[in-house]
Specification:
2 domains, mainly alpha
Length: 468
């Protein structure tokens, strides 16, 4: 199920809230779990079976680690079994076909006969809920969290539908107290509605139109230089407003239920360097990679060379986490090199001495190049697109038709609004936390109604991070 559909907005969510707030408090986590399984199973019912299996398994490993009298060796073996099992599931469903296709290409190059590749369906959001339950076990092992009081609490945490399929990545220790008790007030609920509407509008009014522009350009045979730059900028806006909009909706839904999720974006396109950008973009993933990979590898405590290696490894794996394509690996390597370079300069960019606005523009330009790697179908297509951006590839005869599509008045208005909003200091998360006044419903209700009307008129409505 998707937040931006009439089924969710007018059936699932109202019915769930009606049942949820009329149940005794002790039944609310169970209600949330059942509703989350329905939400997740809407695509494919067997997805729920996989998530339930890993949830039971990780809850069991948590019990083994925290049982009285457990030795350190037993705890370590439980953690290794948990990590191996979770990563095996994730590796099979997410990377089997990529690995098999790559091996077949090598076999073909060597003159050998390729083997038949099994078609594997990727369960939506498997990376997110796997990280949720895996970090729970790791935190128990490290002594950074207390075990869940009941399986209902743990299953509610893993399956929590607001952030189930596209994040943000939430750790159990940040929600443990809220799972035991959370206060639901009119003020908190109203704040959740506010940020949900803002996220919904970002997705429908900004991300989707930008996505149509980006798709038109990236799918074109040979765009001219101006069109190629416009397509790259459109994709940069699409992926930000798509994912940030989803995160805002997740925070809003959580707040309606009494949960408080951490902010996942902090005006990332206002970053002054790549190091600064990764403190602002997908904050929950960055913190997980830092705490569970970068620090265990040694962080910056084992000399500069080891620090550069650790940064490169983390970003390569971060790229691979996004998907089983060489593009994502190249994307991770690109950011790893930039982070290593800035670390070598004392966490300063090459353009550190430029005025603030030029530093922001330079960082956005570097990020723009990485989005071409991220969006292109393969590395060959990415190289061709870079050539088009710099006028090294001849434009096709259909460039006039493409330009008419890209630069339609509505698209220009949307792109302008995106450019204004991404460089604002105050973000939706902060705005929603300000004291509620009567002016907010006056402003947001028409925005929501308009967004819903536009939603019904759109055929293009993907969530980019569902594939991750």
């Amino acid at each position: 199920m998707v937040f931006t559909t009439h089924i969710f907005l007018f059936y699932f969510l109202p019915l769930f809230l009606l049942v949820y707030f009329n149940l005794p408090y002790r039944w609310r986590n169970l209600c949330t779990t059942a509703a989350s399984y329905l939400f997740y199973g809407w695509w494919q019912p067997w997805f729920v079976c996989l998530m339930m299996f890993t949830t039971v398994m990780d809850f069991f490993w948590g019990k083994v680690i925290t049982r009285p009298g457990a030795t350190r060796v037993q705890q370590r073996m439980a953690v290794l079994a948990c990590v191996a099992t979770n990563l095996s599931f994730l590796g099979f469903f997410k990377y089997y076909m990529f690995a098999a296709d790559t091996l077949n290409q090598l076999l073909t190059m060597a003159g050998a006969e390729p083997f038949r590749v099994l078609v594997v369906v990727l369960p939506i959001g498997i990376s997110f809920y796997t990280f949720h339950s895996l970090t729970y076990v790791l935190d128990l092992y490290r002594g950074h969290a207390t075990p869940a009081k009941s399986f209902t609490d743990f299953s509610s945490f893993v399956a929590l539908f607001p952030d189930l399929v596209a994040g943000p990545i939430i750790r159990y220790k940040t929600l443990a107290a809220q799972l035991a008790f959370r206060e639901s007030t009119v003020r908190r609920f109203a704040s959740g509605v506010c940020i949900f509407i803002l996220g919904f509008a970002k997705k429908i009014l900004l991300a989707n139109p930008c996505g149509q522009v980006a798709d038109a350009v990236f799918n074109a045979g040979s765009p001219c230089a101006l069109d190629a730059w416009a397509g790259a900028i459109a994709y940069a806006f699409q992926i930000y407003f798509d994912f940030c909009g989803y995160s805002d909706m997740a925070v809003g839904l959580g707040r309606m239920l009494g949960f408080e999720f951490l902010k996942n974006f902090d005006a990332p396109y206002r970053a002054e360097s790549i190091t600064d950008l990764w403190r602002r973009w997908h904050i929950s993933l960055s913190s997980v990679l830092r705490d569970y990979l970068y620090f265990p590898l040694g962080g910056n405590q084992k000399g500069p060379v080891r620090t550069y290696v650790n940064l490169a490894v983390v970003m390569l794996l971060g790229g691979l986490w996004h998907g089983a394509k060489w593009n994502f690996i190249a994307w991770g390597a690109y950011h790893g090199l930039l982070l290593c370079y800035e670390r070598w300069r004392g966490k300063q960019s090459l353009y550190q001495k430029l005025p603030l606005n030029l530093r922001i523009a330079a960082t956005f330009l570097l990020m723009l190049f990485s989005w071409v790697l991220f969006r292109a179908d393969n590395l060959t297509a990415a190289a061709h697109y870079f050539g088009a951006m710099f006028g090294l590839a001849p434009a096709s005869g259909a460039s006039a038709l493409l330009a008419a599509d890209i630069y339609a008045p509505l698209n220009l208005v949307v792109m302008t609004l995106c450019a204004v909003f991404v460089f604002q200091r105050t973000q939706a998360h902060e705005w929603s936390l300000k004291p509620q006044t009567w002016t907010r419903p006056v402003l947001l209700l028409p925005l929501f109604v308009f967004s819903v009307l536009v939603m019904f008129s759109q055929a293009f409505n993907p969530f980019l991070y569902f594939q991750f």
